[in-house]
Amino acid sequence: MTMLRPRETGGEQDLASFWRGVGERRGGEVAFYSFATLVGQTGGGPAGLAGLLYRVGERFWFEDFERENWLLRILPPRRPFAKTEICFDLAAVTAVRVVSRATAHRCLRGGIAPGATAALGRASRFFTTPVIQVTLADGSALFFEVMREREFLAATSTPGLPAR
After folding, report:
1. Could you report the per-residue pLDDT of 11-24, keeping only the tens digit for each?
2. 11-155 in CATH: which number?
3. Are 31 and 6 contacting, i.e. CB atoms less than 8 angstroms apart?
4. Which three-class secondary structure state does DSSP give residue 88?
């Protein structure tokens, strides 16, 4: 029989050391972080990847993680996990707006250009899932569902960006 012992350190200390390690790996201090889902990237189609979205210095990073699933432990894996990492510089961000999930999917399928998406109104948020669109200087766009939406919008706030 195997005895499980509680961790020697508390959860907050473990979390703090995790983010300290991420900051060291990326060359700075983590200024913002949130769980997020990468809905997709124009030119790449829908993704639906769950992961972490964070800012270190003037750069944002998204990295997915392998999901734990009890059923997958019984069945052999279909394919090995391939980690996805995406980064973009704050200076490359030309617009950030909250759009509907349906608008994001239309844009990902090429039905609407990233610059032509309509921002989601406050009342509309009750009827649809809000998705944050990050438009980059090259004309491409990334779409995220972000758990800490307000903090992300504040972290992307720079003078000269269009209103959200």
Report:
1. 555 878 888 888 88
2. 2.30.29.30
3. no
4. strand
Provide the H-helix boundaries in 29-100.
70-74
Reply yes or no on whether the pLDDT at 146 is more than 60.
yes
Exposed e or buried b per residue across 117-139, where buried means at least 16 C-beta atoms within 10 angstroms of its C-beta: bebbeeeeeeeeeebbbbbbeee
pLDDT at 130 exceeding the cut of 80: yes
Q: Which residue has the tokens 């200076």?
A: 91
Quote the CA–CA distance of 104 and 90 in Å, as a whole number: 21
**pTM score:** 0.79
Q: Kindly tell me if the per-residue pLDDT of 132 is higher than 70.
A: yes
- Cβ atoms within 10 Å of 93's Cβ, excluding its own: 18
**CA–CA distance, 40 with 29 (Å, rounded to integer):** 27
pLDDT at 127: 87
Q: What angle do CA 42, 136, 40 make, to 5 degrees?
A: 30
